[in-house]
Amino acid sequence: MTVDEKIFDKGLANTIAAESSMSYIDGANGILEYVGIDIDSLARNSTFEESTYLLWNGTLPNQSQLNGLVDDLREEYALPGGVIDLIRTFPTDAAPMHALQTAVASLALHDPEADVNEPGPNVRKSIKLVAKTPAIVAAFDRHRKGLDIIEPDSSLDIASNFLWMLNGEKPTETMGKALDVCLILHADHGTNASTFTSLVVISTLSDMYSSMAAAIGALRGPLHGGANEGVMRMLEEIGSLDKVDAAIEQKLANKDKIMGFGHRVYKAVDPRATYLKTFTKGIAEDTGNQSLYEMSSRIEDIMNEKVGSRGIYPNVDFYSATTYHCLGLDLDLFTPLFAIARMVGWTGHCMEQLADNKLIRPGSAYIGPHGVDYTPISDR
Ligand code: SDX
Is residue 101 within 8 Å of residue 343, measured between CB atoms? Predict the structure, then answer.
């Protein structure tokens, strides 16, 4: 359909909405690179902080540059007192993603540079957002459980500090590293729905905090970042390996979407799922969760057989769910963890947008009536 020589592209599935040098995705061949470096290499060799530097600056840091970013992040781990006070007012049965969205927006109230849309202040805001999001998620979880909120430990990296603030004990090196790898894998992924949301907001010259709060709202949807929670609910609902075949075939017969499968861009296996599958196997064995891994692997086999030919393969959420469960995370903290990682991508893409901004305002094809008379209410 064209309107004034414009093309209606439902879901913007065939539209390029931005130029970026952060993530390269080859959907046909299942390739993901951060600034040209393959995601598998980064997962094996990098850290979340180093990958953050890469995505924001377009190159791997030298030791001095990395130390500088790590120091800047750690100086910002702690939350303003007013944000902690706000979190303490949240209902204990609130959804963690709603709590996160509210608290992230409230960070603007405590930042005198909130509305300064210049490179320096926006880098500082990006550092604050990446550094403080873990503390918000952990503080709300402690609050809802009636536990003391734990101060961050700036001797720890972002992944281990999150587990410390969440559990009140220092994580093992294995667990800390496992979470660090998950954060790397989830840090950026082009103009996915939540990143595109952040671009729309920042393109109006609104502010980073408003943009991030909007992105969190988009991420929580079950078609996007909320899928990892849906995967775990599906595994818990199925219950055991012997019930997998019947359950999945019933879901497919019902035309249900199987959470953790399919992707708008990947028509091959999501390379993050490939990495996580092997990674999850090890963690599941170490933590006595082999059955979850075996069920997931069987589901993947069935889906490959039934719908693989249609390009429906596991995406990042399918095996990350089991990994997060093995790390001891509550199911409704899976998507907040995705947000902790993706804060890097959202802020990075917003800084790219501002460097060459144009208001994002697509057209719409009007399909309503014309020439309708106004009928007085007495005659309706
Ligand atoms: C993420 O975009 C990103 O980069 C996102 C992300 C990132 O890092 O930011 O990668 C993270 O969000 C991963 C996706 C997580 N979502 C899920 O796992 C939810 C389940 N997946 C589906 O809802 C779906 O695959 C989408 C939403 C992810 C993509 O859907 P599209 O591109 O809009 O395609 P579609 O829904 O129109 O599906 C095309 C066909 C349909 O069948 P028909 O109507 O043509 O007969 O494929 C079928 C769908 O029914 N299909 C599925 C399916 N996904 C698609 N059938 C069963 N199970 C599925 N999971």
Answer: no
Q: Can you list the alpha helix ranges (DSSP code H) found in the chain?
A: 39-45, 48-57, 63-74, 81-87, 96-106, 119-144, 158-167, 173-186, 193-203, 208-219, 227-238, 244-253, 271-286, 290-307, 316-326, 334-355
What pLDDT digit, counting tens, does each position of 61-99 carry?
999 999 999 999 999 999 999 999 999 999 999 999 999
Q: Which domains does the chain have, with CATH numbers?
A: 22-222+339-355 (1.10.580.10), 227-326 (1.10.230.10)
Ligand 1 first shell, C-beta below 6 A: 11, 189, 192, 223-225, 227, 257-265, 312, 315-317
Chain segment 182-210, per-residue pLDDT in tens: 999 999 999 999 999 999 999 999 999 99
Give 148 Cα–ligand 1 centroid separation in angstroms: 40
pLDDT tens readout for residues 117-126: 999 999 999 9
Cβ-contact 130, 52 below 8 angstroms: yes
Mutate to test the pocket of ligand 1, among 255, 312, 344, 349 (most ligand atoms within 8 A of CB): 312
> Sign of torsion, CA 321 78 195 31?
negative
Backbone region of residue 262 per phi and psi (left: phi > 0; alpha: psi in -120 to 50; beta: other values): left
Q: Angle CA(216)–CA(217)–CA(223) in degrees, nearest 5?
A: 100
263 token code pair:
């992707």
- Active-site annotation holds for 71: no
3-class secondary structure, 146: coil
Query: Separation of 260 CA from ligand 1 center, angstroms?
Result: 8
Interval between CA 252 and ligand 1 midpoint (Å): 14
Contact 195, 22 (CB under 8 A): no
